[in-house]
Amino acid sequence: MHVTTTPSEKSTLRVEVELPVDRVARAVADATRRLGQRTRVAGFRPGKAPRGMLERVLGAGAVWDEAVEALVDASYREWLTATSDDPAVVVIGRPTIELVDAEEGKPLRYAATVPLRPSVALGDYGGFPFRPEIDPVDDAKVERVVDELRDQQATLGPVEERPAARGDWAVIGFTGTRDGEPFDGGTADRMPLVIGEERLIPGFEDHLVGLRPGATTEFDATFPDDYHEESLRGATAHFRVELRELREKVMPPADDDFARSMGDFADLAALRAEIRQRLERNALDRARHGFADRIIDYAVKNATIDLPDILVDEEVEVMHDELRSALARQGISEEAYLAAAGKKDAELHADFRPGAEERAKTLLVLGEIASREGIDVPDRDIIDEIIRAKARYADQPKLVAYFDTPRAQAAIRSSLRRSRVVETLIDRWLAAHPEHPAIPHVEEGEPAALGGIAPEPEDAAGIAAVPAPA
């Protein structure tokens, strides 16, 4: 067997193989014997039918095709074995085979395009010219959360001293006509709405402003060109509307009683202190996440990689798995999602591809940094993460089963390694800049009782559920 190799684009290797005539002849004899063993030919015992009789049953060229397939497979495996100790040749997928000369009676020649693990030429990844950015928490942000909490506790009270205004809660009755005739969907006896939210056609609710309960108004309104009912698109209708009820949102006063209603807070000052503390923790958490993203981007942009298609394809599949998991958590089937999006799998994968390329590059760069820095993820850590994931999604059998697949475990390992590489770089930068405020790891942040990881900065709902601080 004669082999020549030539590096090719996108981290592939072109392997050209030539097999001598005598080996080809033996492969044909072996193929005839194998096919004869599994093919019934009248008048012959298994394995005894001559090639001509086999090809009458199986079709012309069946023996030759079998011989070529076996030769290519066997010789490619021989080459893999011979190069298994070569650190420069790490095969990461199946080859693409091209038959160059496959004529019986001559040497067999083929070329295999083999995807290799790409080499990553790291550039600078630790000397980044930027710092963490921590959003300041001021009194205005604290008061905004207080107001959001008050809004959640608001009640609706009747409006008696003034006419309707935007933001009021109303109940209306209306009749719509076109050319003097009612139309389907154009009449309601008691429809609730919030004036100004544009629940109905544009401009409709503007005519409610200034009315008092019991008052009526009449006006013309035009349906938008993209209205859901095709027959009404662009049409003008006449409406007669009565304001039947009018209420407004009444927020509790921002006082000590309100603070105590939100938990075991002594007074409004204690509630504000808790909100400020939470916002400051969130600001630090966002600063660390944002700093991490910028470090990754810096490292990837400074690295040189010739990315093979197979790695991008694998990352596309990972992204598809992530979508399936997200849909499952929401109780949505993949079929329903694709139907609503008007897409097929191939179109979805095309949408994923740019992001998959960036993710594949990121994983390779962080993997190379991990190797240089001696950062590893023990199998025990992956098992622990899988156990936690299974417990978290115990009510979703398909998702639980997914965590046992090699693809899921590889994704978990990559995620943990990515996190540990970046945390190492962040901690190293902080150690070199002791004047900078500490930005703790997520696990060093607020306790579980105060909500989940990285909540939104003005997450009033999370505050509302907070038990009293110790």
What this model shows, in words?
By secondary structure, the protein is of the alpha+beta class. It folds into three domains: 2-117, Trigger factor ribosome-binding domain (Alpha-Beta Plaits); 156-250, Chitinase A, domain 3 (Roll); 259-464, Trigger factor, domain 2 (Orthogonal Bundle). The chain has 13 helices and eleven strands. It has helices spanning 21-38, 51-58, 62-82, 139-152, 256-261, 268-302, 309-329, 334-341, 345-373, 379-392, 397-402, 406-432, 460-464, and strands at residues 2-8, 12-19, 96-101, 108-115, 120-121, 155-158, 169-178, 181-194, 216-222, 236-250, 304-305. It is flat, with a radius of gyration of 35 Å. The model is unreliable at 444-470 (pLDDT under 50).
Largest sheet: 5 strands, antiparallel
Per the CATH scheme, the topology name of the largest domain is Trigger factor, domain 2
Cα-atom Rg, whole angstroms? 35 Å
Low-confidence stretches: 444-470
SS strand fraction: 15-25%
CATH level-two architecture of the largest domain:
Orthogonal Bundle
Question: What order do the helices and strands follow?
Answer: EEHHHEEEHEEEEEHHEHHHHHHH
**Quantity of strands, as a count:** 11
Helix content: 40-55%
How confident is the prediction overall: mean pLDDT?
87
Distance between the termini: 77 Å
The computed structural class is alpha+beta
Q: How large is the count of helical segments?
A: 13
Q: CATH class of the largest domain, anyone? A: Mainly Alpha
Total number of domains? 3
